[in-house]
Amino acid sequence: MEKAADLDYLRDYNDALVVAIARRSGVFDRATIAAGTGLTPQAVSKVVARLLAAGLVEPDGVRRTGVGKPTTVYRLIPTSRYAIGAHVARRTLRLVLTDLVGEVLRTIVTPLPEDFTPQHLLDALAEGVTTLADGCRAGRLVGVGIGMVGPLDHAEGVVRDAHRLRHWHDVPLRDLATERLGMPVLLDKDVTAGVTAEAWRRGTTFRDAVLIMVESGIGSGLWLGGSAYRGAHTNAGEFGHMVVQLDGPRCVCGRRGCLEIVHDQARARGDVDAAARVLAVGVVNLLQAIDVDHVVLAGADLLPHADAYLGAALAAVRAEVPRVDWLTTEVTTSSLGTDVIAAGAAMEVLNEEYGPLTSPRTAAHA
Ligand SMILES: [Zn+2]
Predict the structure, then answer these.
(1) Does residue 363 fall inside a structural domain?
(2) What is the pLDDT of residues 95-116, one digit of tens each?
(3) How many angstroms is it from 110 CA to the middle of ligand 1?
(4) CA of 238 to the centre of ligand 1 (A)
(5) Ligand 1: centre distance to CA 188 (Å)
(6) Which InterPro entries match (predicted)?
(7) Residues 49-73: pLDDT tens digits?
(8) Spacing, Cα 339 to ligand 1 middle (Å)
């Protein structure tokens, strides 16, 4: 019995590895897969046969190299599987439908009542998922990923305390949504989903990065050493609650002078430039602590003023990081705009089912 489970695991693992490679390379042949995974040609043939049977790949012609036999070339079928991603913000629920390669096909935005309850969210989620699932053929929808404001526990699927939402204390949202929707659900911090989306789009050079989101609060998603970094309690990245002013105003978290409250007060005064400079100080603090080479700025409260925030962050990085000739950091805005969190949550579902973005080079052998 245990042996059968092991074999299932190895089979799924190797299939996922091949899907991950195919997703990156577009078309592939058996030799590319063998070279990329270390699997034997026989094992690769078995994987490809399974993926063909599952409808995930299809032949895409033949390639002739030298005098040998022509080689069949395959391609991943993007519309063979779909995932839905949800971005739960304080006033809105944004849902996207993505295909197997993470392209956003449809977006729905629903307002949420002020200070919404878990029941409000589940109702809105069920309605939106039904609408998006309508266009998908049976069996092709893999699951739903939810990116939500924290603090929350990704491993347990529990929202611990969503800042500024009264009804969200120890809510087992993942299990509640799984039961309501009748399909696999994954829960992660909004910012971690966001940085996952950027990593999907930017490829293997995106290894050490941070996504900073300004949207009813300030948070950061960390991507370190080629994968999402969540920390000991899956609560890493509470960037907005780093203190930047010791005797500053009282923050929603209870401390004084947090970056978030100092930033928000500047925005409330209408001083976007001052707010951008506060955020820029935080960016430099973060660079000093974790040495990333990509900073991605995102969030509905930031993107309309992207030039001011980008300018301030770039100026601060140049002025305050010693040796900019050596410590190079690229600062950009999100490549997916306001869909980035929802899209990333969908990509996390696809990662779970069809292999990590950063696949290990070596396959598992029985
Ligand atoms: Zn705070």
Answers:
(1) no
(2) 999 999 889 999 999 999 999 9
(3) 28
(4) 9
(5) 20
(6) ATPase_NBD (IPR043129), ROK (IPR000600), ROK_cs (IPR049874), WH-like_DNA-bd_sf (IPR036388), WH_DNA-bd_sf (IPR036390)
(7) 999 998 999 999 998 877 777 889 9
(8) 26
